[in-house]
Structures
1.
Amino acid sequence: MKKNKPAPMPPERLVTIAKYVADSGMTDPAVRGKIRDGHWIEGRHYFRRGRRIRLLPSACDEWYQTGKKR
């Protein structure tokens, strides 16, 4: 089976979920729910390396401001 290549890392600094929660005011379960439910898309809103998740704050904030469902 062919492995998918990981999405290229964006030039903007990625942050941990804890840092995003502290800066944005969202709760940890809310952030993890957006990822779990597919509202935030891997490679666009967040990046995963092994079990570690890093968020792209500008993309997550844009999703919130535009009210997109997916």
2.
Amino acid sequence: MRDTEINALSLAMQSGVPYVGLRDVAPDPNLMLYVPASVARATEVVPLSLDENRLQLACATLEGDLTPIQARFPRLELELCISPADEIRDLLARMRGRES
């Protein structure tokens, strides 16, 4: 197990926020409409799924500023889960690659 994975698991257990591994997640670039790329990179947050009014976001920490998302979509419920930072960066890179 990698250090980033251990750190993410530890944070998830301490905070009670669910843990989600992203290695096998297929990126959906359409979900980036909800999270501006600059916000995603700065806060290491990536959207995972949208189910009715709930947007599930993977984040490396619980300290990211989600106000840009909340301001654009005030009726959207944001559901956080913890994921390893390197897996978030990899998923963001894969999403960026599909936009080209």
